[in-house]
Amino acid sequence: MGYTYEEYKVTADWLLANTEHRPLIAIICGSGLGGLAEILKDQKVFSYSDIPNFPQSTVHGHAGRLVFGTLKGKSCVCMQGRFHLYEGYPIWKRQTKSAGKSANKLLTLSRSVEFSAEHLVTFPIRIFRLLGVETAIVTNAAGGLNENYKVGDIMLIKDHLNMPGFAGNNPLVGPNDERFGLRFPCMSDAYDRDLRKLAKTVARDLGYSDFLKEGVYCVLGGPSFETIAECNMLKRLGADAVGMSTVHEVIVARHCGMRVFGLSLITNKAVMDYNSESKANHEEVLQTGRERASQLEEMISRLVEGIEPNNNNVC
Ligand SMILES: O=P(O)(O)O[C@H]1O[C@H](CO)[C@@H](O)[C@H]1O
Ligand SMILES: Nc1nc2[nH]cnc2c(=O)[nH]1
Questions:
Q1: How confident is the model at residue 92 (pLDDT cuts 50, 70, 90)?
Q2: Partner of 86 at 20 to 30 A CA spacing, among 159, 209, 218, 242?
Q3: Does 34 contact ligand 1 (Cβ within 6 A)?
Q4: Is residue 278 part of a domain?
Q5: Residue 90 domain-assigned?
Q6: Which residues surround ligand 2 with Cβ inside 6 Å?
Q7: Quick one: which of 28, 31, 30, 27 has its CA closest to 286?
Q8: Which ipTM did the prediction report?
Q9: Has residue 315 been placed in a domain?
Q10: Atom 6, ligand 2: residue with shortest CA distance
Q11: Is the pTM of this model over 0.95?
Q12: 40: domain range?
């Protein structure tokens, strides 16, 4: 990773000095799902552009605000806008001497979008860890590959396929800082089984079982949507849904000992058939998010209500 522990601390300490909230749960909102942040009470809101070193959101449907507040009495922080590889943010970067030495220099650079390549896709996750966050709830909009999935289904993520990772693009590339986590973190338990079980109970109680699924999320680099051949290949490889985010955040969150719960809103059906007239598009993605917003808000609220403190187990 490109930043030193001390540089991450500059941002975390700035946030701790500017809010009284001490969140234990972080919620990352996917495309068009930023409304989730609105359910937090006693809000303290920061625009990303006002937070030292924070990357800037560039994608429609990602507002670029960090919202602190309480949900069902629990202190939370919510990212209204995440960062994607295709925005030009690196997933890892070589640690240069200057990056390692001068937090002040970084602070200056971060004020300009020209230096966006200085930021990492997963930068906020380690900030959350330094704020004391124990559990990450990661949401995304995804294309459904599984033929049983319908638009509007909510898929609990039980596992992932890290396609950029196969080519060496893993957010943990570079020197490992043991203060964050192990050199070789385990990923076979990335998506917490107890939280998935809780989510299934919550969904059943809310009457959502008809549109609740559980499956494997596959990340690609984007920004182009998949070809028909790519969709068919991903399905054969065992993916149920495809998107351009989440996995890097999950890897970094697990590395630093957070418990992770992930869900995908199936916003569109991946095009698998050469006779189909369907075309994936971002407007449909955002529209499906708007249509499922209230159910997602209800589900996340109940889930947060049921979350017990983390025992910080990493293998
Ligand atoms: O993964 P999130 O941020 O929800 O967004 C998804 O939706 C966008 C495409 O419409 C891509 O950014 C894809 O990753
Ligand atoms: N890669 C990818 N990302 C998405 N995000 C929402 N839908 C899709 C999709 O079909 N493909």
A1: confident
A2: 159
A3: no
A4: yes
A5: yes
A6: 141-143, 220, 222, 225-226, 242-244, 267-268, 270, 280, 285
A7: 31
A8: 0.99
A9: no
A10: 142
A11: no
A12: 5-306
Cβ contacts of residue 23 below 8 Å, gap of 6+?
68, 75, 76, 77, 128, 131, 132, 133
- Three-state DSSP at 10 gives helix
The two three-digit tokens of residue 279, written as one number: 């075309």
Residue 312 lies in a domain: no
End-to-end CA distance of the chain: 21
Please give the average per-residue pLDDT across 246-274, as a whole number. Answer: 97
Q: Residue 107 belongs to a domain with what CATH number?
A: 3.40.50.1580
pLDDT-based confidence at residue 93 (cuts at 50, 70, 90): confident
Give the H or E element holding residue 64.
Answer: none
Average pLDDT of the chain is 90
Dist. CA 215–CA 159, nearest whole Å: 7
Q: What stretches of the chain adopt beta strand conformation (E)?
A: 25-28, 41-47, 65-71, 74-80, 135-144, 154-162, 212-219, 241-243, 259-269
> So which residues are the catalytic ones?
31, 62, 84, 86-87, 141, 244-245, 268, 282
Q: Measure the CA–CA gap between 40 and 73, rounded to whole angstroms.
A: 10
